[in-house]
């Protein structure tokens, strides 16, 4: 099972080179995994039909009792055959539907096959968590498939609508899964069905939430709006996702859980009422539409309501009828969608008002469509008739609620016959007053997939008894029926046959009066669900804008004050009510007096920030508070933490300075005396409150501190630094999450600078051209020429691009001498991952030093690779190491290898070092990205502005621009000329 699922995704990843090499014929190769799955499922028929199952299990998160369980039983057998078998035919159909010149074909092919793999895993999943994972994978891939033609606004909107509706339902379902698993004590579906938890409020809420997800996936009212709009997708997508796969996922989930939860009080009212309403509303709407795909779409909505009603009714015979109807629906709806694609392909339109005489021009296509449509209308001797007979018979012998459902089902069947006849007439009949539609010939390979499916409906009608054993194995999971129903084409004359005749006759009458019915339907039509959805989104957007305008005033000080006041109110209320300080030991002011002195100086620097008006002074004072924290680490005995803190604080201050170059020197926000008088007490009160909370929280400890156990664990593995080991091993989850946040923040900041392109290499002519002193400075005299001077030595690679009056030879020499030793130090810290942190920031400081000494060209020479490469590679390595632990059952499981090398001696290497290597690369990439964005990019902007000013002055003086100046050359240290 797992190999088949993996094959789908592996071959989907290879879709691009296959399509590039073979064109549309690549779909034939892509059809191999679902074809193999179909063959495998066929070999398991006897096992599952006998009530047996094929299982596979892998412990995913053993500590939380979460495993990846796969199980093939009777119901899963049916769904696997549909998802894989029809998936194979649809992929073969795509080989004729598309051409090698179709745009974005490779992505479409990969997404379609990946969807088939996700659907296969979904129906095989035997635990709630993995079922949800694959459920959402089908949502994501369906979004990509519906939005295939992303240049069309309608396609984008339809894809987003489907994603929104099904994702919201999926999130509700996930909460229901968690509640159900918690209540049942297990997440394994087969175990829950074998021993369901007792009915109670928690189970009822869980069932309602799960039904929300199932009904939204199967487009049951009021979630039915997304499926008709999803017809924006190519026809193969409609035939697969909306006839045999995705929309059946919700019906499958209802059928899967019904044996255990059909007796929960909220189950039947929701399933039967909404299912019947969907059947009627969808069928009625299909009677007035003119697009063949939309007629089938609303017909699909109607049929899904019928399937949901049967699957959730909760009796043995309705479950048997539901299984037969699921198979029948796939065998007639998928070929009808495929035939619609053929008609559209051959005639160039799907509008039934413009189509005329297509049946005579394409007789074989017409024959396939009539065969499938007859099964949809439940005409004998087709599979649709046998399944509908089973449904009528099951509801006929049910409860009072089942009798009401039977009446609504018959009414829905009348509508089904009517819109089926309208589809066949609209697509293939010759219409008075309409010229015959010109069509081109359809090849046999194009017609073969729908023809094979339609023939299945014809063969399985008389042969429906062949499926009775398999479907009966699923139906027998329900309470036994006194007189169990068995599938057969003919059960003699009876009420069920009479109801079928009434439905057929009623549908024929509605079709004959189609003009009146269409007029009446449009006259009494309610606002469409799509219109209501659009108005709701528009209202939500307007409300959010109003709320944002009210809350977001554009003042950072107001935001901070609001946050602090809310925190103060909450914390002071808790402290005042609970009085947690009673009985707590008094806090120590310091361990050594030096701590108090450092703390006092740090607080003084923080308070001085309130008195300055220059931005640069405020940055320096704020930086001093960070250095004060680093000194506290030193006094406490943590030099490694102090080193990291010093590096981080230095990088932060440099970033602040780079930003301040484009900002006014003084703070422009005018602060009145009374505002300052309010801000200072609020800030001091917040600090005092947080200090009290920290003291109270530490004093409230009842368990032994974890520090001693961590120290013992670290020393047991021969390590020395507890904090470093925590970062890369014991709490590596936190580090990985913080690294991802850091990368996201850096990308967001730099994206604001690089509005158009993030990869902007400096033109070579800028480096080779004359430097900025040609613009900013007169010619310098007194310099040695010819043999008078000593040979020049370039300490930096791009030192010649700097203006002499802005160069610092001492700084250049120091940068040159320290750059490589600092890099070596960072690598040393990297390989001491579990003993010393901070290697990435040390390497970032080395690059920053090169930039400050030589400008942006020097930075480009020192780090010629793009920062995104380091950031992405770092995330990839750290995430890969984390996932590598799954081989032993736990994410981020650590391994260590000990060995001996000549000359070096004993060594050990472990996954924490590899994990820290990923963090090292990520931090280096983030620092480099920020320096390039806030340094080099702003340098370029400043240089262009200076050159434009110089050119303007030269033009005003009538002398023209100085010759040889190159735009974008550096103006001084860091590229700043002013």
Descriptive account of the structure:
The chain is built from 40 helices and four strands. The protein is mainly α and 978 residues long. The strands form two sheets. Strands 1-2 form a two-stranded antiparallel ribbon. It has a two-stranded antiparallel sheet with strand order 3-4. Strand 3 and strand 4 form a beta hairpin. Helix 27 crosses helix 31. It is elongated, with a radius of gyration of 36 Å. The two termini are 68 Å apart. The C terminus is likely disordered.
Number of contiguous helices: 40
Structural shape: elongated
* Rg measurement, Å: 36 Å
The helix content is 55-70%
Characterize the biggest β-sheet.
Answer: 2 strands, antiparallel
Strand content: under 5%
Counted beta strands: 4
Termini separation comes to 68 Å
Main attributes of the structure:
single chain; 978 residues; mainly alpha; two-stranded antiparallel ribbon; two-stranded antiparallel sheet; 4 strands; elongated; disordered C terminus
Layout of SSEs?
Layout lengths: L1 H12 L1 H8 L3 H5 L1 H12 L1 H5 L4 E8 L4 E7 L1 H24 L7 H20 L3 H19 L6 H32 L4 H6 L6 H17 L8 H4 L5 H7 L4 H16 L5 H20 L5 H21 L3 H32 L10 H4 L1 H14 L6 H14 L3 H29 L15 H16 L5 H11 L19 H18 L1 H10 L5 H23 L4 H23 L14 H16 L6 H22 L2 H22 L12 H27 L7 H10 L5 H9 L1 H22 L10 H5 L4 H4 L32 H23 L7 H24 L4 H18 L11 E6 L3 E6 H47 L21
Antiparallel strand pairs: 1-2, 3-4
Helix pairs in contact: 1-4, 1-7, 2-7, 4-6, 6-7, 6-13, 6-17, 6-22, 6-23, 7-8, 8-9, 9-11, 11-14, 13-17, 14-16, 15-16, 15-21, 16-17, 16-21, 17-19, 17-20, 17-22, 17-23, 19-21, 19-22, 20-24, 21-24, 27-31, 28-29, 29-30, 30-38, 30-40, 33-34, 34-39, 34-40, 37-38, 38-40, 39-40
């Amino acid at each position: 099972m797992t190999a088949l699922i993996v094959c789908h995704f592996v071959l989907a990843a290879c879709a691009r080179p296959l399509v590039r090499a073979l064109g549309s014929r690549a779909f034939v190769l892509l059809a191999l995994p679902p074809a193999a799955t179909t063959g495998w499922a066929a070999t398991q028929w006897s096992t599952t039909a006998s009530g047996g199952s094929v299982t596979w299990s892998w412990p995913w998160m053993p500590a939380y009792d979460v495993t990846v369980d796969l199980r093939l039983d009777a119901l899963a057998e049916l769904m696997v055959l549909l998802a894989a078998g029809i998936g194979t035919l649809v992929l073969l159909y795509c080989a004729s539907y598309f051409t090698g010149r179709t745009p974005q074909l490779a992505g479409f092919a990969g997404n379609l096959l990946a969807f088939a793999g996700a659907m296969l895993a979904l129906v095989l999943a035997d635990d709630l968590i993995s079922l949800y994972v694959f459920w959402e994978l089908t949502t994501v891939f369906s979004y990509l498939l519906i939005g295939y033609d992303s240049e069309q606004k309608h396609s984008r909107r339809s894809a987003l609508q489907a994603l929104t509706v099904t994702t919201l339902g999926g999130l509700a379902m996930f909460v229901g899964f968690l509640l159900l698993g918690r209540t049942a004590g297990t997440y394994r579906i087969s175990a829950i069905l074998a021993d369901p938890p007792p009915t109670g409020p928690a189970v009822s809420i869980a069932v309602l939430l799960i039904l929300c997800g199932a009904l939204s996936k199967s487009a049951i009212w009021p979630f039915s709006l997304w499926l008709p709009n999803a017809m924006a997708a190519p026809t193969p997508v409609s035939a697969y996702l909306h006839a045999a796969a995705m929309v059946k996922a919700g019906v499958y989930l209802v059928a899967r859980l019904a044996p255990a939860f059909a007796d929960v009080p909220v189950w039947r009212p929701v399933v039967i009422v909404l299912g019947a309403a969907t059947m009627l509303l969808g069928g009625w709407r299909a009677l007035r539409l003119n697009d063949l795909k939309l007629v089938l779409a609303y017909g699909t909505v109607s049929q899904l309501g019928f399937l949901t009603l049967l699957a959730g009714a909760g009796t043995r015979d309705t479950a048997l009828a539901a299984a037969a109807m699921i198979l029948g629906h796939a065998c007639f709806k998928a070929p009808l969608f495929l035939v619609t694609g053929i008609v559209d392909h051959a005639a160039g339109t799907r509008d039934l008002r413009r189509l005329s005489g297509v049946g005579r021009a394409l007789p074989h296509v017409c024959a396939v469509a009539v065969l499938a449509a007859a099964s949809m209308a439940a005409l004998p001797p087709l599979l649709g008739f046998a399944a509908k007979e089973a449904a009528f018979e099951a509801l006929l012998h049910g409860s009072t609620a089942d009798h009401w459902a039977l009446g609504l089902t018959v009414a829905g069947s009348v509508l089904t016959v009517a819109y089926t006849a309208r589809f066949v007439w609209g697509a293939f009949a010759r219409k008075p007053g309409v010229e015959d539609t010109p069509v081109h010939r359809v090849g046999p390979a194009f017609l073969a997939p729908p023809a094979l499916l339609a023939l299945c409906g014809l063969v399985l009608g008389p042969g429906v008894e062949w499926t009775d054993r398999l479907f009966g194995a699923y139906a027998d999971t329900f309470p036994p029926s006194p007189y169990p129903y068995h599938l057969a084409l003919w059960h003699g004359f009876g009420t069920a046959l009479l109801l079928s005749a009434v439905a057929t006759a009623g549908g024929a009458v509605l079709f004959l009066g189609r003009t009146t019915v269409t007029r009446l339907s449009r006259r009494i039509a309610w606002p469409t669900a799509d219109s209501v959805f659009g108005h709701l989104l528009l209202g939500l957007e307007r409300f959010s804008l109003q709320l944002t305008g009210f809350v977001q005033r554009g003042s950072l000080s107001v935001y901070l004050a609001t946050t602090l006041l809310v925190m103060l109110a909450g914390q002071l209320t808790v402290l005042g009510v609970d009085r947690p300080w009673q009985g707590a030991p008094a806090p120590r002011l310091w361990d050594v007096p030096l701590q108090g002195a450092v703390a006092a100086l740090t607080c003084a620097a923080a308070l001085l920030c309130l008195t300055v008006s220059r931005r640069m002074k405020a940055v320096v004072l704020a930086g001093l508070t960070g250095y004060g924290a680093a000194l506290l680490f030193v006094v406490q005995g943590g030099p490694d933490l102090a080193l990291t803190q010093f590096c981080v604080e230095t990088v932060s201050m440099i970033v602040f300075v780079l930003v301040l170059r484009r900002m006014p020197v003084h703070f422009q926000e005018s602060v009145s005396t009374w505002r300052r008088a309010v801000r200072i007490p609020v800030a001091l009160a917040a600090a005092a409150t947080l200090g009290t909370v920290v003291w109270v929280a530490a004093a409230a400890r009842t368990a032994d501190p974890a520090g001693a156990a961590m120290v013992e664990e670290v020393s047991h593995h021969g390590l020395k630094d507890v904090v470093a080991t925590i970062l890369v091993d014991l709490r590596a989850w936190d580090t990985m999450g913080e690294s991802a946040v850091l990368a996201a923040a850096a990308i967001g900041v730099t994206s604001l600078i690089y509005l158009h392109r993030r990869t902007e290499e400096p033109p070579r002519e800028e480096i080779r051209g004359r430097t900025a002193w040609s613009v900013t400075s007169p010619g310098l005299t007194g310099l040695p020429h010819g043999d008078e001077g000593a040979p020049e030595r370039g300490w930096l690679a791009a030192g010649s691009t700097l203006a002499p009056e802005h160069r610092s030879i001492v700084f250049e020499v120091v940068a040159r001498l320290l750059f490589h030793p600092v890099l070596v130090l960072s690598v040393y810290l990297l390989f001491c991952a579990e003993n010393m942190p901070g290697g990435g920031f040390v390497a970032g400081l080395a690059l920053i030093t090169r930039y400050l000494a030589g400008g942006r060209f020097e930075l480009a020479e020192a780090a010629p690779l793009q920062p995104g490469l380091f950031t992405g590679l770092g995330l990839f390595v750290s995430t890969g190491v984390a996932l590598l632990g799954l081989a032993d059952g736990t994410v981020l499981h650590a391994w260590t290898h000990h060995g001996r090398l000549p000359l070096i001696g004993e060594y050990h290497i472990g996954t924490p070092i590899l994990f820290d290597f990923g963090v090292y690369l990520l931090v280096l990439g983030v620092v480099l990205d920020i320096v390039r964005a806030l340094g080099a990019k702003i340098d370029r902007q400043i240089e262009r502005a200076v050159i434009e000013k110089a050119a303007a002055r030269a033009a005003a003086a009538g002398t023209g621009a100085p010759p040889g100046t190159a735009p974008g050359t550096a103006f001084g240290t860091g590229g700043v000329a002013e």
